Amino acid sequence: MKYLFISMLLFLFFGHAQKSGPFHKEVQSIQKKYDRIWDDSKTTIVFTGSSSIRMWNNIQNAFPEYQVVNSGFGGSMSADLLRYTNELILEYKPKKVFIYEGDNDIAAQIRTEKILENTIAIIDRIKAKDPKTEIVLISAKPSIARWGHRNKYKRLNRGLERLSKRDDTISYANVWDPMVDNNIVRRDIFLRDGLHMNSKGYDLWLSVIKEHVN
C-alpha cells in the first residue's frame, strides 16, 4: 500500500509538470493550429525543434506535394522535445520527421553526451510508434552569435552523424558546411541578432533539406 501511494504521488507530480511545464502554452498553440488544418488522409512530414524550425515560415510552400507540420518551438532544447514528442510529432502520424535540436543545448552548456542521449530517446519513441518512420537529424548550424562554441557544435554534429547510421531509416542533413566559407561563418545569411537566419539562410537550408525530403 505504501508503494502504491508513492506511485500515485509521482504520477500526479509528473502529470502536473507536463501540463504546466516549460513551453506548455507554445505546444498547446501548435496543437490548436494543426487541429484545424491537419488532414489525416494526407502524407505528413513533420519539422520540429527550436526556433530555426519555428521561424521557417514558408516551409509548406517549399514542399507543396506533402502536408507539412511545423511544430518548432523557439528556445527549446532536446529535453523539451523529448518531453513533448507525442504532442509535436507522433500525433500527426508522419512518414518523415526532421529534427533540429542541440543548438540551444550547447549554448546552455549541456553536455554533448546528454544531447545525444535525449536524441536517441526521441528516436526510440518515434520508432516504437512506427518503425518505418523516416528520421532526418539536422546538424547544428553555425552562427555569428555562437561562433565561440563552434568546436562543441562540431562535436555534436559528429555524434548526430554517427546516430544516423543506426539504420537505413535515419539520415543526417549537413547544413553546417554550406553556412561556412573558408572556415568562417557567413554573415550575409543572418538577421541582426547574429543567431537566426534570413531568407538567404533558409535558401541554403532548403538546398540541403530537399534532398532528404525527396
TrEMBL record:
InterPro entries: Ester_Hydrolysis_Enzymes (IPR051532), SGNH_hydro (IPR013830), SGNH_hydro_sf (IPR036514). Pfam families: Lipase_GDSL_2. The keyword Signal applies. Residues 1-19 form the signal peptide. Residues 57-204 form the SGNH hydrolase-type esterase domain. Keywords: Signal. PANTHER family: SGNH HYDROLASE-TYPE ESTERASE DOMAIN-CONTAINING PROTEIN, THIOESTERASE 1/PROTEASE 1/LYSOPHOSPHOLIPASE L1. This is GDSL-type esterase/lipase family protein. It comes from Sediminicola luteus.
